[in-house]
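Technical note accompanying the year-one report. For the benefit of new consortium partners, we illustrate the data format agreed upon in the data management plan: each record pairs a sequence with a structure-token string. No post-processing was applied to the example shown here.
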Amino acid sequence: MAGAVAVSIGKPGKRYNAKMTAYVWFLCLIGGSGGLLLGYDNGVIGGVTSMEAFQYKFFRTVYDAKELGGFHANPNPVKAAYCSYNNQVLQLVVSSLYISALFSGIIASKFARLYGRKPVNIVAGAFFIIGAAILAGAVDVAMLVVGRILLGIGVGLCSLVMPMYNAEVAPPHLRGGMNILFQWFVTFGILCAGLINYGCDFIDTWGWRLALGLAAIPGAIVFLGGLVMPESPSSLIERGHFEKARQVLSKIRGTNDVDEELADITEAARISNLAPHPMRNLFKPQYRPQLTISLLFMMFQQFTGINAIIFYAPVLFNSIGSGHTASLLNTVIIGAVNVLSTVVAIVVVDRLGRKFLLIAGVIQMVIAEIVVGITLKYEFAKYGGQLPNGPSIGILVCICVFIAGFAWSWGPIGWLYPTEIQPLEVRAAACSFNVAMNMLFTFVIGQCFVTMLCTMEWGVFLFFAGMCVIMGLWAALLLPETKGVEIESVFRLFQNHWFWGKFPAVKNMSAHSSLPYNTKMGTEANAIGPALVPGAARLSAQPIPQNGNATNGTPLVGGNSKTVI
């Protein structure tokens, strides 16, 4: 499902004098709560589009097909069941959010660098509240699309900035878990949306308005959280506020002994600035393996079929004969499985490794989708497009197995792995790229799935199973295992890989391979930098703050830099 990324820094193996204080937990919960925006929206829209009052007001052809005899009167009731929700405008309402999220995710990195994480967080919450209000009061499809676009702006901003904030304020040795916390909130948001849809379905005429309007609650949580949270130390240092950065870091670490960590944050910002045009650098030959893997990861993550099921689960169950209320209840069950299974990833990802979970998850998803496809092929036709309880329960169980397989493998790892394989000097730019690609492929699936279901019928599940087989082979053959590998040494995995190591640019790369030679060796950049890298002399000469004595107001980031955490 759509999710988010974060970047981490620090010298390999280093442990700072950092405590996991109650204040840090509070801040990380604020950061993680951004996942509620994405999760609630993913979960609520499928339930709302299956509500009769919503269909009657905005999509009368869908309503007529389901309620006024169009379905039963059709000479091919099986085909009619598969195609009952095949409406391009309805799919546009569902997927329009992700186009706006794509673009807002791209610009979020620049705004967060220039103005800080805190104001971007506040703006994201405000957009979500306004979008929810428009949706709740919608009187035509245009208002639905506008509301969804505003929600998408909030989602795109949060998907990049809030995991970034969590990674900056959490103790370095716990940053991975704090990153997955955002993903857990996504799944929790989906579960909350399922419960709200189930309750609102009992309100005949305006239940759908309440379900859409309640999106303002996670928006308000993010907005208010942005008001009370401090700016992150990394952002303060980037913008030249060294004394304030020391104060904030001392408070969140629970100690005044922060000189070493503060120096490393300052150095990381300096190194990042010495790599000119990081987004452009992503496309250099030495980074193409990582870029290719990131692109394919985002595509494969969506072509498991996960968001097709999350978006359209009530529609899917309604199409195969479950009662409308039962369809929404099934969605709640799926959401609960999703939440619990994501916890598994948090517990075992650093014990069993990334590749093991990815391959095992593929096997689980393939089996579940094949069983669903075959069951629909033979049972759906037998019962004339209306499955009895037995097969319906069997399909629900299989979809839960599929959801569990995704939630502890390709869901969280699909965001973790593409981040940790990126070299430091392009890692933040790669984060923006990953968010944009995820939103793009989420849009594609959201716009196409119902049409695919109508055209391919039961075969759509075999299509997704086939894609899972391909991505499983891809993971087994082409992904280096990163478990236990220091993040700054990951590039060596590519150099020693049987496939990626064949490319000369990869074989000859080193850590920070796009930086000036003296920067890689740790010497002062101004020895060679001024003629080669804009701002290099200024940054390398910038004093590292000690004991609160620092000059404020001189940003460590120039026009070419990207945020590094």
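Partners are asked to follow this layout when depositing records. Confidence is low (pLDDT under 50) at residues 4-13, 516-551, 558-565.
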